[in-house]
Amino acid sequence: MGALRRSAGLRRGAGAPGWNQGSGLRTWFKVSFFEQVLRVGPFEVTKLVLQAVVTVVALGLVPSIRRRFGWGYAVFTFAVVALPALSTKDFMGMGRYLLAAFPCFAAGGVLLVQRPRLRLAVLGGSTFGLLFLASLAARAIT
Fold it and tell me: Rounded to whole angstroms, how far apart are CA atoms 103 and 78?
């Protein structure tokens, strides 16, 4: 194993080269995430916090998925969301993993059907988010 680490250029706890992310407790407890939230401007904070919130919401839907669709889908959703969330330093890129958590969309749809006011709030918030992020993309603000 030591030879493999040396050949890959890895030190203990260094993580993959080029990703600027270590491994271990610092990554698991999202120390870098909280440092960035306190240090960066409002647009960067929005990007970071939005992905963290969506990840927490997806994990919060796991009990509903278990009740409605069974243990198999619940375990799949938990694994597909929790493992990448645990291994990322700041939740960036979680959207690609959440797309694989398709039972979350079904459970969210069922919850929105039962709550018309929440459905309108989610629709309004999604519309605003789409327009806001499209305007940022049009002005090349990243």
Answer: 10
